[in-house]
Amino acid sequence: MRSPRRRRVVAGLLLAPTLTGCFASGGDSSGGDFADGSRLRVALAFPPAENFSPYGADATLLSRLGVTEGLTKLDANGAAAPALAESWTRENDRNWLFTLREATFQDGTDVTPDAVAAALTHATEAEPVTAALSGITLTANKSGDNQVRVTTEDPDPALPLRLSSPGLAILSEKAYGKDRPTPVGTATGPFELTKVNGTTAATLDRFDDYWGGRAQASGIDARFIADGTARTNALRTDQADVAEAVPVSQASTLDKGTRHETATTRTTSLLLNTKSGAFKDPRLRAAAREAVDTSVFAKDVYEGYADPGVGIFGPAVTWAAGKRVEPTGRAKAADADGTSVTIATYDNRPELPEVAQVLQQQLQKAGFKVRLEVREYSRLESDALAGKFDAFVGARNSLLDTGDPVSVLASDFTCDGSYNLALLCDKEVDQAVADAEKESDTAERQQTAMNAEAAVLGTDATVPLVHQRIITGVGTSVKGVILDPYERALIGTGTRR
User: Fold this and answer.
1) Which of 82, 268, 460, 476 could cysteine-pair with 285, CB 3.0–4.6 Å?
2) What is the number of domains present in the chain?
């Protein structure tokens, strides 16, 4: 057994008023001695929406900052690769055995089979269910000194991919109290979250006992800046070292050496509320789909930093084009005849309000009356999931949650899906997704995923608009920023300035 390290006391989540100052201009903002490595100043688009809960939208924020890890991760080809589990075997259809590597939690305790099993069990009990477990029932138990057996109620060929999800990060026992779990000082990544100032800023310090080696940066000073122009300006004026999600309208203001374009699996879509309101009628959904000209968004709104929408899975999913199936069974479009609808979107990604405005014009031309609702994302998601809008414009990384195309279809478009913004509940879609979930052969699973995609598109619950390329602003002195097409990682052990 390894001895717990001698460590500083971790500060709790400190809620404070909105910060008006800029990033710390050097040194350690928390008072420690980090003479052997500079701190990184990172401008992020999305503030924590759930007080850094590891199960919702904040889970990806934690993984991008190098705080949390799962048993597995995705490699460059989108396959499952070792993380806290150094290897695994499939014992039978429902049982997988994961062998753990030697690692330490940030609170000084060891990563043990009991701790891992407990963390996965807590994830299965989370409400709402984390997206990676949508439609999945699993149990986890200790098996020997360094192994965990994960058992699924039904066969799950994609389990190693699923366990790479940021929403299935492994935290220590101390993370789980009466309230929601906290990643402060309880995760395993190279950076430890030590302080949070509301939804405006966070301080992270290097975790010196990280199993993957000591990070080159001494810590991270993160600011959450929803305004894309302000994020870009922070980089241009040397207030930030890294700025994520630079708006296309601001790309030309950055020097070529600081502007990095990455093809991603992120698709911007119009999601139509199929449960209530005007778009409960499939004929009006068809009318909305026919009114949309996707080429306008790629060329004009995204200024060439995107491709016209062709499906839920775009060109960055390299195998999809050859397996795509034409949707069938679509309803015949009805006359909009002045039908009033409300389209909601968020301004954390600054192109989205413009997308919504163009949609408003296109739908009005088709006879709809359209009202727009624009908010910051954390103030919008719960209302969207509750069906309070007729339509929602969002940018969704289709392979973010698990890396498995079938899993995202289950999460976003089935009756029991946990991120079903279209509120779709269709027997044919559920059956197509269920058929895909049974496939263990990679090629067959991909094909059945595309069959399920066609079933979803046939309902007109979603209209894919564009497939995005993400622009990241990186200072010329900064090295090792992770430009991840899955958008799960940004800062790692090799990121430095």
Assistant:
1) 460
2) 2
